[in-house]
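Two entries, shown back to back:
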Amino acid sequence: MTTFKTTTDQFIKQRMMSYLQELGYNFYQSAKLLKLTQEERDEMSRHWAE
């Protein structure tokens, strides 16, 4: 159950980051709004294309 929750949380955060990017937010604004941990920021930054 924990693995499923973690995967779901990660998926939702990735989708929210994509949505915020489409709205014109930069990476740091988006990460701050979603209150991402440093580990999550490192992972998400790999998929962020400016």
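entry 2 starts here
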Amino acid sequence: MQHLKKGDQFVVACVESPETAPSVIAAARYFAERLRDKQLMLLNVSRKEKAEWIKDFGIPYVAMSGDWVTAIEGLPTAFNAVLAVTAVDSSAPRTSIANAHTLLRTFRKCKIAYLVVNAELTHYSPINAALTVDYHRESKEKLIWASYLARFLGAELTIATPQYRDAGLRELQSNNIRYIDKVFPPLGITYRSKRLPVKGNNLRSNPDLQAIDILQPDILIARATDPRATDPLDWIFGTPDRLLLTHPSHTPILFLNPRDDLYILCD
């Protein structure tokens, strides 16, 4: 473990191998430098030998023995982290956290936002960021992170709204949209709006996938699938968040987990 200054806030690059580390570090450094000068830290966790290669990057790091799930859950408390960055790789085996299925399982208890990048991507500027505002309460947390991207990274925002037939869902969505009018104007944040067309069964369709296909953003802010509300069809077609990670566009995804104790950066 390299010495870390007490009191600093960190963007943590979760690096598993020297092959995928450069793209993760590039994205993490980009965010760390712009989110009010947060510090950059590397994290590697192994059940075997500690990763000696992590020293070669010349960045403060923690290389520890144990399991990734425990380390990820402790990011905001043990490491004072405000954002985690990791990689997804379609060719990674199930034993690797870069495997889409394993990644989502590993980060399921993550209490901070986590950016997932494809191992091939290294370019993050300029950023066109998109998010969907639906009926879930996490839409408000997505909007807060959208405001960070606009204020600190100079991102151009597009907010997509799925169209619901159900009056109750429309009311919940309207509450989230009103939140935009409350938060964005005082901060001078502007955005483009896009209505997503009704597509089949409202509740089974994935508006985030629609947003990627229609808007083709540089980064999508998305809600991870709630494991408490799984659908039997997910076992056949894959969960919505897994479909995002395996989308052929390789769009980086900034995930927020559906949790009651989510930590939100509030600079």
